[in-house]
Automatic annotation (TrEMBL), chains A, B:
One of its GO terms (cellular component) is cytosol. This is 3-isopropylmalate dehydrogenase. Substrate binds at R96, R106, R135, D225. The record marks Y142, K193 as: Important for catalysis. NAD(+) binds at residues 76-89, 283-295. InterPro entries: IsoCit/isopropylmalate_DH_CS, IsoPropMal-DH-like_dom, Isopropylmalate_DH. Belongs to the isocitrate and isopropylmalate dehydrogenases family. LeuB type 1 subfamily. Pathway: Amino-acid biosynthesis; L-leucine biosynthesis; L-leucine from 3-methyl-2-oxobutanoate: step 3/4. It catalyses: (2R,3S)-3-isopropylmalate + NAD(+) = 4-methyl-2-oxopentanoate + CO2 + NADH. It comes from Agathobaculum faecis. The lineage of its organism: Bacteria, Bacillati, Bacillota, Clostridia, Eubacteriales. Gene3D superfamilies: Isopropylmalate Dehydrogenase (3.40.718.10).
Amino acid sequence: MEYNIAVVKGDGIGPEIVTEAMQVLDKVGERFGHTFHYQEVLAGGCSIDANGIPLTEETIEICKNADSVLLGAVGGPKWDEVPSEKRPEKALLGLRSALGLFVNLRPAQMHKALSDACPIKPEIIGDGFDILVCRELTGDVYFGRHYRRESDKGWGETGADDMNYSVYEVERIGRRAFEMAMKRNKKVCSVDKANVLETSRVWRETMHRIKDEYPEVAYSDMYVDNCAMQLVRNPSQFDVIVTGNLFGDILSDEASMITGSIGMLPSASMNESGKGMYEPIHGSAPDIAGKGIANPIATILSCAMMLRYSFGLMAEADAVENAVEAVLDAGHRTADIAAPGEKALSTSEMGALIRAQL
Amino acid sequence: MEYNIAVVKGDGIGPEIVTEAMQVLDKVGERFGHTFHYQEVLAGGCSIDANGIPLTEETIEICKNADSVLLGAVGGPKWDEVPSEKRPEKALLGLRSALGLFVNLRPAQMHKALSDACPIKPEIIGDGFDILVCRELTGDVYFGRHYRRESDKGWGETGADDMNYSVYEVERIGRRAFEMAMKRNKKVCSVDKANVLETSRVWRETMHRIKDEYPEVAYSDMYVDNCAMQLVRNPSQFDVIVTGNLFGDILSDEASMITGSIGMLPSASMNESGKGMYEPIHGSAPDIAGKGIANPIATILSCAMMLRYSFGLMAEADAVENAVEAVLDAGHRTADIAAPGEKALSTSEMGALIRAQL
Ligand SMILES: CC(C)[C@H](C(=O)O)[C@@H](O)C(=O)O
Ligand SMILES: CC(C)[C@H](C(=O)O)[C@@H](O)C(=O)O
C-alpha cells in the first residue's frame, strides 16, 4: 500500500527527531511492503519566519489532503515576543481545528527499563502502570469565544472565555474512550468538575447515558481535583481517563511526568474519518536543538500510533514498539535518559539501533 | 482579648475534629489570656437534613458577624442524590461568596517526621519543600454564569460557563501573593494558560504590572500544564504559587498529595478586612465518622492560621504549630499516618497530647 504523510518538522529539535522517525517508517515500508510518501510543510516558528504567520492555508490544505500528519515540535524563545495571535502554538490549535482532530490519545506508561527515572516511589508504582488519557481536543474553553469586556461591577477590564460542551461532542469523545477501553483493561474514568460547572454537568449526564452501551466496561466519575491527586497517590488504578480539553491538558501532562519517561511518550490526535496528527508530547527543546543529541523515541512511537490508528497496520505498529522496547532493554540510552556515567547515544545512533531491530 | 468564632462542625468527621480544635483554642486562651466565644451553626449536609438547604441566611449572618469561621468538613454519600443546586458543597461556595473570601491560602509542606509517607522519591524531595498555594476563591469560571443553551452548530444541548477575571480581582489576589512571598522566600510563580485563554492574558498582564511594586520578589510565569508537571518533577523550586480559582483547585490538591501528609494540611480563606474561614483541606471521611479515630491535626493547624491571619496573634499561632511539631517528632500518630504496626492514637488522645505541649 501507499500512504501520503504530511510532515511538519517544526522548530528546535523537531527536524532531527522527525528525520529519524521517517527513516523508521521507511524501514517498516521495506519490511512489510508499503511505500510512504512525504510532503514537508512549514508550521510554527519556521512558518512565522518564512511567511509571517504560524500556519498558512497551504499547509492546512496539504495536511487535509494527506493520509496523516507527522509533527515534530513547534515554538521556542525566538518567537516569545510575537503577539499572541501569531504565536507558534497557534499552528497546533489551528491544525487541530482545521482537521477536526477531536480525540487526543496520550498513553502514559512507565517503561520498565526506565523505572529509575520515575519520580514516584516504587512501593506506589508496584508493577508499573499503563494509563491512556483520552482528551477532547476541539472543544471546551479552548475553542469558545475569547474576548474582553468591562466588568459589570466596575472592576475594570475583564478577560473572558466561553467554556462549553454540547451533547454531541461529549458522545463523540466518550464513545472513543469506551472503544479504547474495550481493547484494554475495560475501565473508563471520566473526569469533570460537575459540582461547579454546567459544562461538566452536561458532560457527566451524557457519559452516564452512553456508558450503558458498553456494559463490559467499568465506569467511574472523578472530580478533576481528585484526579490530580490520585495520579500521584495511585496511578495504577487507572486504565482509560476521558476528559475535556482543558482538564486533559493538565492531567495528561501530570500523568506523563509521573512515568518519568517524558522524552519517550507519543500522542495521536484523530478525527472522525481516522485521519490523524502524530507527535511526541515533549517540546521543541531549543537548548539542545541542532546538537544531534535529542531522543527520537517519542516521535518514533508516534509513528507506531499512526500505523495502528490511521493506517490500521497493527503488525507494523507492534514491530516498531517492540523494536524500541528491545533497544531500551539492551540498555541503550540517549542523554536525557542515561544514568550518570552511562554512555549516551546520539539521535541518529538511537534511530539506527531501532531500525536494526526491524 | 475576646474573639467570636462561628463554628461549622459540618458532616462526617467534622464534629470530632472541630471539637478537639476548639479545646486547643481554649488552651491557647488560658495560656495567653484570651477568650474565644463559639457560636455553632449548621452548613452542608446537616443543614440539608435540618432545613432542606445546605446554607441558610441565618448561618450566613452569624458567620458574617463573627470575627472568623472555623469549619470541619461538609458532605457525604448520604446527600449524593440531592439535586446539584442543593448539594452540601454549595454551602462552601455560598460562604466564600457571602463573606467575600477572595484569597485561599494552602500551605503544602512536607512534615519531616512524615517523609516516609511522601509519594515522591527522596532524591527529588531532598531537604523537603514548603509551597504556599495562593488561590483566588471568589471569581473565575466558578462564579461566572452557568447555563444551558442549544448548540449553534446543531450539536444539541450545550452546557456553558463564563470564565473571567477582571483587572481588580487579579490585582487583589496578586498583591496578597507578593505580600506573602515577602514574608517567606521571596518567590512568586503565577500560573495561567495565557497561550489559550483571554482570562489568563488579563491575569498575566495585570501580574506583570503589579510585580514591579515588589522588586525584591523573584517573579515567574508558568503554564498550568507545566506546573502540574513541575510539582511532581521538582516541588522544591516553588515558594508562593498564585493562580485562579479553577487552576488553584487542581494544583493545590496535587501539591497537597505530594506532601504525603494530606490529613495534616490546613487552609485559610480570607476577605479584604482580614476575616477568614479556616478549615482542613481533607474531606468529611464518612467511612470513619463517629469512630473517634480521625486525625485532628489539619483542623488544629487551621486554628493556628486563624490566630495568625485573622487575629494577628503570632506567638499564639507559633505555639500551636510548635506543639503539633513536637508531638509528631515524639512519634505520636493517628491511624491515617501510623506506619504498619505502629500504635494509633484516637482523635482525642492526639488533641490532648497537643494541648499538653501548650
Ligand atoms: C501549546 C498549547 C496550546 C497546547 C495545549 O494547551 O493544547 C499544549 O499544551 C498541548 O497540550 O498540546
Ligand atoms: C467542593 C468544591 C466545590 C470545592 C472547590 O472546587 O472549590 C473543593 O474542591 C475545594 O477545593 O474546596
